[in-house]
Specification:
Blueprint lengths: L1 E4 L4 H4 L13 E4 L1 E2 L8 H7 L9 E8 L3 E9 L16 E7 L15 E7 L2 E10 L6 E3 L6 E8 L2 E9 L17 E9 L11 E2 L4 E5 L2
Parallel strand pairs: 1-4, 1-14
Antiparallel strand pairs: 2-4, 3-13, 4-5, 5-11, 6-7, 6-12, 7-8, 8-9, 8-10, 10-11, 12-13, 12-14
Length: about 220
């Protein structure tokens, strides 16, 4: 997948409804439910062993940069938006991008010594993604740095979410905590989507079972 370099301002770059996205065909990323056996909660294992989750089965992925900032746009089907947490059976819709911080990082949440960086957006906190670093299932820790947010903007229309993540190419985060993006370079990422109305949260999600290979145009 090629992330084209375009001459466009930051505000437009971060707008999921901006007309320029129509110039770049989306890459279809197939999604599957996370295996129930990987859940680390006995309650979740018991309740969801025969349940249906991971409702999103595909997402459209686009990526562009302007030499200073990079933007990823996700679009997926969601008949009715869930933008808040209601009791314990209705959660906010969410999506995440996952980037390996080591060439050896496994796709599902990394491993000890081979972490992954996670950009997690949720519909009830719409303006910025939370940044997490994980070294295995259940190990995610929050990286707090107010000067280097991954800004997000999402719109729900016609039964679909469209979401953009935008970040500076050079993040002001500790090197071990930040995904790196270099024009002309090759990178990998994965996608996850949660359907809040189906009580999906934490490990109950749909995810891409293979890395997406990404090249940034120089």
């Amino acid at each position: 997948m090629l992330a084209k370099r375009i001459d466009i301002g930051a505000d437009t770059l971060g707008d999921p409804a901006a007309a320029f996205w129509g110039r770049f065909p989306a890459r279809k990323v197939s999604l599957v439910p996370t295996p129930v056996g990987l859940q680390n909660s006995k309650y979740v294992l018991a309740k969801w062993r025969d349940g249906e989750y991971g409702h999103a089965r595909a997402a459209g992925l686009q990526c562009v940069h302007n030499g200073t900032e990079i933007a990823f746009r996700l679009e997926w089907e969601c008949e009715k938006a869930a933008a808040s947490v209601i009791d314990n059976d209705h959660f906010a819709d969410a999506a995440a991008l996952l980037f390996p911080l080591s060439d050896l990082a496994p796709l599902i949440m990394g491993a000890e010594g081979a972490p992954v960086s996670i950009w997690h957006w949720r519909a009830d906190r719409p303006k910025a993604a939370r940044l997490n670093v994980a070294t295995g299932i259940g190990t995610s820790s929050l990286t707090r740095n107010a000067t280097t947010p991954v800004e997000t903007k999402a719109v729900h229309h016609g039964g679909r979410w469209a979401l953009v993540y935008r970040r500076a190419l050079e993040a002001r985060l500790p090197a071990d905590d930040a995904a790196k993006f270099t024009p002309g370079g090759h990178h990998r990422l994965a996608v996850a989507v949660w359907s809040g109305a189906n009580a999906e949260r934490a490990g109950l999600k749909a995810y891409s079972p293979e890395w997406v290979e990404l090249e940034l145009e120089a």
